[in-house]
Amino acid sequence: MKIKLNGELSEFQEGTTVAGLLEKLNIQTGRVAVEVNIEIIKKQNYEKHMLKEGDLIEIVNFVGGG
User: Fold this and answer.
1) I need a labelling partner for 1 at 20 to 30 A (CA). Which of 11, 13, 16, 60 fits?
2) Which domain holds residue 33?
3) pLDDT digits (tens, 9 = 90+) for 1-31
4) Secondary structure (3-state) at 23
5) What is the pTM of this model?
6) What confidence tier does 66 reach under pLDDT thresholds 50, 70, 90?
7) Residue 61's pLDDT is what?
8) Are the CB atoms for 57 and 4 separated by under 8 Å?
9) What is the rounded average pLDDT for all residues in the chain?
10) Does the residue 66 lie in any domain?
11) What mean pLDDT do residues 26-49 have?
12) Comparing C-alpha atoms, which of 62, 64, 19, 63 is closest to residue 36?
């Protein structure tokens, strides 16, 4: 399936969840926010939220420091 990930066209396997996407991208879930089609997905729903063809996904990584 084709999705738009952080503004770039990407292709992933049908049935991929948000958790699966993060795993494939080697992104730890601790300090990220994931938005699918302008809706923030709660961390407890990452395993359940299935991605669909044409989804617009933004992944934001929080960085600490001062």
Assistant:
1) 60
2) 2-61
3) 999 999 999 999 999 999 999 999 999 988 8
4) helix
5) 0.90
6) low
7) 87
8) yes
9) 94
10) no
11) 95
12) 19
CB-based contacts of 33-41 (< 8 A; 24+ apart in sequence): 33/59, 33/60, 33/62, 34/58, 34/59, 34/60, 35/59, 35/60
Q: Does residue 43 form part of some domain?
A: yes
Report the phi/psi class of residue 15: left, alpha or beta, with left for phi > 0 and alpha for psi in -120 to 50. Answer: left
Domains held by the chain: number: 1
Helices marked H in the chain: 18-24
C-beta of residue 12 within 8 angstroms of C-beta of residue 21: yes
CATH code of 13's domain: 3.10.20.30
Residue 38: inside a domain: yes
